[in-house]
Structure formats: C-alpha cells, structure tokens
Amino acid sequence: MTSYIVLDLEFNYPNTRFRSEKNGVVLHEDIIEFGAVKLDEKLNQLDTFCRFVKPTAYPKVNRDVQELTEITTEMIWAGEPFEVVVRDFLRWCGDDSAFITWSDNDIIALEDNIGYHGLEVGELPRCFNIQWMFDDQVTQEDRDFALSYAMWKLEIKPAPSHEALNDAINTAEVLRHLDMSEGLEEYEI
C-alpha cells in the first residue's frame, strides 16, 4: 500500500421528512464537503483534498447543519457537482491506497451518494475505522467515542471541528498516536 487517505465528509439533511430516492437509493445524507489528508506508510502528510459539493437532493442547507458546520447554502451552491468531485477525489487517492475514517458513517454515505447518482466508480479502497482502534488501544470500553474525546484523551490540540479537512487532519493526528500495525492486524472486516 502506498498511501492512507484519511477521509471526512460533511453532510446535509432534508428540512422535512421527505427523503429523495433515485437509482434505488433512498438518500439520507447528501454529501456537501469532502476533506481528506493523504499519508504515506509512515503517516507523514503528503497532500490534502478539500472541495464543496453542489447538492442535488437537498439543495438548501439544513439549519442544524449550518449551525454545526457554518456551511451556508451559498457556499455549497458555489461547489461542483458530486460526480465531478468524487471522480477527482478518487483519482487524487491513487490506485494503491486505503481509507481511514472516524466511524463507518462516511463510507456508508459515500457509497449511498455514488449509487444515488448512478455512478460507476469501480471498487472503493479498503476502509479502516480507527474509532475501533482507538477504543481497542486506548479506552477498552467497547464503545464509540467522539473524535473530540479522542483528541482530549490523547492530549492533542485540535483544529476547529466540523470542517471536513480539519476533521480529517484531526483524525490523522489521532492515528499517529495509535499503533497502526497492531490495529491493522486486529482489524475485523
């Protein structure tokens, strides 16, 4: 493996109970921002990727999402279509990479958005949820913790949260405090 892609996505949700459905996918989370950090095998940062996505399913930013992320409708409408951003992102990732996320939500939402848009992107890289590694190596409480808790517990000064690139950077910092080889050995599919 040549690189790890630490991925974080920001989502928009509908303002009503309505859920958009297309191509057999009911879309619960419309991706509005990609943030990623590319790391080498020694976890050194090689590059970053950050782009807003112009939504099609839920075009107006939900009030709760805006309060949490400070992302406005104007910001995402200045973004590019999902199809363009995801293709650029996957090309940027390269052929020999693995995804690192904090929870499985980002990968589930990415797969749903790809299906919703009817895209053929091939197989996504293998994904590792380091939230599990953090619990296994640090807390051993058999539960999910927020990224902010992990940063506090490991005494890492965080970049501002709920911005996709910053959350990817924060996740990479937590990763550097874990034993990656042990985590990958014990990782359950």
SSE ordering: EEEEEHHEHEHEHHHH
Q: What is the SS-derived class?
A: alpha/beta
Q: What is the end-to-end distance?
A: 18 Å
**Uncertain ranges:** none
How large is the count of helical segments?
Answer: 8
Taking the sheet with the most strands, its summary is: 6 strands, mixed
Q: What is the domain tally?
A: 1
Kindly report the average pLDDT value.
Answer: 93
DSSP strand count: 8
Can you name the CATH architecture?
A: 2-Layer Sandwich
Q: In the CATH scheme, what's the topology name?
A: Nucleotidyltransferase, domain 5
| Proportion of strand residues | 15-25%
Q: What is the class in the CATH system? A: Alpha Beta
| Biggest sheet: strand arrangement | 6-5-4-1-7-8
* Shape descriptor: globular
